[in-house]
Specification:
transmembrane; globular; Phosphorylase Kinase, domain 1; 6-stranded antiparallel β-barrel; about 350 residues; 2 domains; alpha+beta; about 35% helix; Transferase(Phosphotransferase), domain 1
Length: about 350
C-alpha cells in the first residue's frame, strides 16, 4: 500500500454489529498490520470519532454466509475484541467480494510480550500470567456457554492493552458452534496448541480443545517457551507423550472412539514439578496438570479454572499493577453463563457445607 493510498479517505456504507441498521463511515490512515491465508488486517482511523480501529478484510464465498461474522455478531464481552461495523465491497475482479470487519484496535499481543521477555532471558512476571490467563478463561467461559468453540487459542490471538493489562480474545476465523454428533474437521488449531484428540483424528470433539490450548499457553508463559514444540503433526504427539507419558487405551478411546492403532512405545509420565523451574508455585503447576489431561472431560471447565487458587492474588483488594494502576475489571460478570455458573457453584458449595 502506497503512502497516497494510506492517506486516502474511504467512505462506505457499513452495518452495525447488532441489528440491521446501516450508516456511512469514513476511514483513513490505513496501513497493513497483519496478513495470512485468511486475508489482510489494516489499522485505520475513523474520521467521525477519530478512533483507531482494525479492519479485517477476507474474501467472501458468495455461496455461504461468513461464519466468523455470524459468530462475532453474537458476542459482547469485556474480554473479547469488539466488532463495531462490517461492510462488503467488490474487488478488482467482479466475482470477488470482500467482507470487511471493523474491530476495536488493541495494540499488543501476549505473543509479542512473551517474546520480548524471552529475548531478555526472563519470564513474564507471575501477576501478569495470572491476569492474562484469568481473562482468557473468562472469555472461554462466555463463548463455550454459547456453544462456540474458538479452535485457535494461541498467544498471537490474545490481544493486550499494556497500560491496563486488559486481555481480549480475537480472530474467530476458525470458530464454530459445535453440535454433539455432528462431524467437524480435526485438522484445526495451531500445532503447538493442538489438543491430542485432534491429533488422533477425532471429529466429534468438544469445546475442551480450547481448554487444552489454554493450558499450553499457561505452560508457555511459565516456561518462557512452548511446552510441546512439535515439528509436525506426528511429532506434536511425541512431544506431548514425552511429558504426559503414553496414553492408556481408555484415554485414547475417550479422545477418539474410532481410533484403532495402539502401537505406541510405553513412556512413563514426567513429574510436572520437574517440567517447570523450582520457583514456579505449586498451584500454577497444579493448574497446568488439570488443563493438560488426555481425557477431555477431566480438564477444568473455564469457569472452574477462574475459581482456582492460582488466581487468589487477583481477588485481594490490595493487589495492583506494577505501574500502581488498579487491576482491570475482572469480576464484572456478564449475564450469559458467568453469573449462572457462579451461582450454581456457590449453591453446591453451600449444600456441601450443610451436609458436612
Amino acid at each position: 500500500m502506497s503512502q497516497k493510498d494510506a492517506n486516502k479517505v474511504v467512505t462506505v456504507v457499513a452495518y452495525m454489529c447488532q441489528g440491521d441498521k446501516s450508516k456511512e463511515i469514513s476511514y483513513t490512515d490505513a496501513k497493513v498490520i497483519g496478513n495470512g491465508s485468511f486475508g489482510v488486517v489494516y489499522q485505520a482511523r475513523l474520521l467521525e470519532t477519530d478512533e483507531v480501529v482494525a479492519v479485517k478484510k477476507v474474501l467472501q464465498d458468495r455461496r455461504f454466509k461468513n461464519r466468523e461474522l455470524q459468530i462475532m455478531r453474537q458476542l459482547d464481552h469485556p474480554n473479547i475484541v469488539q466488532l463495531k461495523y462490517f461492510f462488503h465491497f467488490v474487488g478488482d475482479r467482479k466475482d470477488d467480494v470482500y467482507l470487511n470487519l471493523v474491530l476495536e484496535f488493541i495494540p499488543e499481543t501476549v505473543y509479542r510480550v512473551a517474546r520480548r521477555y524471552a529475548r531478555q532471558k526472563e519470564t513474564i512476571p507471575l501477576l501478569f500470567v495470572k491476569l492474562y490467563m484469568y481473562q482468557l478463561f473468562r472469555s472461554l467461559a462466555y463463548i463455550h456457554h454459547k456453544g462456540i468453540c474458538h479452535r485457535d487459542i494461541k498467544p498471537q490471538n490474545l490481544l493486550l492493552n499494556p497500560a491496563t493489562a486488559v486481555l481480549k480474545l480475537c480472530d474467530f476465523g476458525s470458530a464454530k458452534v459445535l453440535v454433539r454428533g455432528e462431524p467437524n474437521v480435526s485438522y484445526i488449531c495451531s500445532r503447538y496448541y493442538r489438543a491430542p484428540e485432534l491429533i488422533f483424528g477425532a471429529v466429534d470433539y468438544t469445546c475442551q480443545i480450547d481448554v487444552w490450548s489454554a493450558g499450553c499457553v499457561l505452560a508457555e508463559l511459565l516456561l518462557g517457551q512452548p511446552i510441546f514444540p512439535g515439528e509436525s503433526g506426528v511429532d506434536q504427539l511425541v512431544e506431548i507423550i514425552k511429558v504426559l507419558g503414553t496414553p492408556s487405551r481408555e484415554q485414547i478411546h475417550e479422545m477418539n472412539p474410532d481410533y484403532r492403532e495402539f502401537k505406541f512405545p510405553q513412556i512413563k509420565p514426567h513429574l510436572w514439578s520437574k517440567v517447570f523451574r523450582p520457583r514456579v508455585p505449586s498451584e500454577a503447576i497444579q493448574m497446568v496438570s488439570q488443563l493438560l489431561d488426555y481425557t477431555p472431560s477431566k480438564r477444568l471447565e473455564p469457569l472452574d479454572a477462574c475459581l482456582h487458587c492460582f488466581f487468589d492474588e487477583l481477588r485481594q483488594e490490595e493487589t495492583r499493577l506494577p505501574n500502581d494502576r488498579p487491576l482491570p475489571p475482572l469480576f464484572n460478570l456478564t449475564p450469559y453463563g458467568e453469573c449462572l455458573h457462579f451461582l450454581l457453584i456457590i449453591t453446591v458449595i453451600s449444600v456441601s457445607y450443610i451436609l458436612l
